Amino acid sequence: MAEEKKVLRKGLTTGVHATLAFAKALEAFLITKEISITKINKIDNDDLDVTKGCEIVVSVSDKKNELMISTVKHNAQELIIGTNKLYIYAGIGVGVVTKKGLKIAPNYPAINPVPLENIQKIFIKESEQYHNLVLHCTLSVTNGEEIAKQTANAKVGVIGGISILGTSGIVKPVSSTAYIDSVKTEIEFAKQNDFVPLIFTLGNSAFRVSKEKYDEGQIVEVANFVYDSIEISTNLDIPKVIFVCGIGKMTKVYQGFKNTHNRFGTIDFVQLKEDIKNELGYEVDIESTKTVKGISQELETLGLVDELYTMIAKKANEQIKQWFPKSNVEALILEQSEVAGW
Is the pLDDT assigned to residue 9 strictly greater than 90? Predict the structure, then answer.
């Protein structure tokens, strides 16, 4: 009997949850004329999302001093509708943008344009019968500062907590979309801040070595999303990218793997053996080892390991050029970069 395929759950973005909470908080304030606080937990889903289940808190008052505002100094997002005004602040656990290059200007709450637009629509609808209404609002996330440590927020200058995100409002389950969007944000940030070159890394070792030579702001951890990341950098006309990873992952790239995760396939050792024979004039024993590392150790005893590195890097660069002829990417093998003192 065929195994029944699990239907994966979709979810809603932090922006959708914050907007829903704002609607309820605003409604309560307009009825009671007292500070209102609405809490909502982000709906669980099958995506790999650090904000799953987090508590989002929205407070609305006509007295700013009643609100718990982030200690990170910032300007409020000001919404003016006729004679009515709404000032939106980062609450505790929501970040403040401190550097240029993001969708939000520096010194404003890290609340993306779409959630802000939706909050504005609600404010317009609910306040149309009022005049000279001046309200203050905070968007907060419980333990948001701790959650943010699992993201790239601090790296791109978002301080004090997480960002309130959302474009379509829907979080697709177990998709690569969220990670790729994060990579794109980091690339755009690096471009706006004139970081050249950009450094793409796949793992912790490559990231550690890169930090010894480059500013952390110009290093982007692309995980296994090699093709997607290079596509983004190419479309954004990034002038120079150095792509650093270990010899095993680089072999996958030269063999045409757009994503280097094991679920997309394994290295073709027959092809690798043939390429080594043609390029280096030596026939490796692929039956005795099924790892590129093992092959490199065999070639090291013969004084051919540098030639192996050069061959794999050369073929990886050729593959990248085949994917994106206009890309400015240089593939560099981590082991070789360490030996060369890169």
Answer: no
Alpha helices in the chain (DSSP H): 14-32, 113-127, 144-148, 177-192, 204-211, 226-235, 247-254, 269-280, 292-300, 305-323, 334-339
The full DSSP string for 141-168 is: ETTHHHHHTTSSTTTTTEESEE-B--SS
Residue 35: CB atoms within 10 Å: 16
Among the listed residues 245, 251, 269, 252, the one whose alpha carbon sits nearest the alpha carbon of residue 308: 251
What is the enclosing helix (H) or strand (E) of 140? strand 134-141
Residues in the chain: 342
Provide the 3-class DSSP secondary structure of residue 259.
coil
Place of tokens 């379509």: 168
Residue 184 has pLDDT above 70, yes or no: yes
Tens of pLDDT along 224-251? 899 999 999 999 999 999 999 999 999 9
Mean pLDDT of the chain: 88
Q: In this structure, what DSSP letter does residue 326 have?
A: T
Do 336 and 327 contact (CB within 8 A), yes or no? no
Give the residue-averaged pLDDT of 55-63: 97
Whole-number pLDDT of residue 170: 46
**Residue 20 exposed, middle or buried by CB count within 10 Å (0-12, 13-18, 19+):** middle
Q: How far is CA 293 from CA 68, 255, 336, 341, in A?
A: 54, 16, 13, 20
Average pLDDT of the residues in 280-285: 91
Greatest CA separation found in the chain? 84
Burial 158-179 (b: 16+ CB within 10 A, else e): bbbbbbbbbeeeebebeebebb
Distance, in Å, from the CA atom of 322 to the CA atom of 333, rounded to the nearest integer, reads: 19
Q: What digits encode the pLDDT tens for the residues 21-39?
A: 999 999 999 999 999 999 9
Q: Is residue 96 classed as helix, strand or coil in its secondary structure?
A: strand
Q: Find out whether 61 and 136 touch, Cβ atoms under 8 Å.
A: yes
Query: Which residues, in sequence order, are bridge partners of residue 1?
Result: none
Instruction: Concatenate the DSSP letters of all residues of 274-318 into one string.
Output: HHHHHHHS----TTT--SHHHHHHHHHTTT-HHHHHHHHHHHHHH
The Cβ of residue 213 has, within 10 Å, a number of other Cβ atoms equal to: 12
